[in-house]
Amino acid sequence: MNTVSTVCVYCASSDKCNPIHLQSAYDLGAIFAKQGINIIYGGGSTGLMGKLADGAIASGGHVTGIIPVFMQNLEWGHKNISILEEVKDMHSRKLQMIRRSDAIIALPGGCGTLEELLEAITWKRLGLAHQPIIIVNTNGFYDPLITMLERTVQEKFMREEHLLMWHTVASIQDVLPAILNAALWPKGALDYAKV
Ligand code: AMP
Questions:
Q1: Does the pLDDT of residue 95 top 90, yes or no?
Q2: 191 alpha carbon – ligand 1 mean position (Å)
Q3: Of 28, 47, 121, 143, which sits with the fewest C-beta atoms within 10 Å of its C-beta?
């Protein structure tokens, strides 16, 4: 069984989505806090990002936000989290979020969340990241993306083994068990990164 002390969460900045997603983010923050698991995320105050942090902080959790200077200058950063670190740009933020986490979770979101998720999967394929990647498919939100990823395998743009890079769960209650039980990703993944 895997051990986990810090999770990276990618999720939406939007407040205008279906409230079920906002509630899920809040509840997931609380789940991690109650298990003593630290959260690292993009540091935003709005949308699922803000709710995730609020849920964790309300349950006594430790939350680190990593935010690019230009966003902080716009006062997009959460004002009530354990640590808010400013970094020079988006690339630095994403590097820190992957490097410092034992697992990666994607809740629903827009292009920012999708880009972060696909970057993490790509790094895993290349052997640059090894942690479990959990896609939270609330209300089937991620069905089209999962179909697309499977198609990349069907059309030989990726290998069958690459389907093991991510795990899909139906709800936030399944996230922690999925992390703990995820198969280890081999250190030699680069050897079969090519099709
Ligand atoms: P999206 O899923 O498109 O809402 O994007 C979420 C991601 O985009 C975050 O992880 C950030 O990289 C970035 N982002 C977009 N808007 C904000 C915001 N208001 N505050 C912080 N980060 C944001």
A1: yes
A2: 33
A3: 143
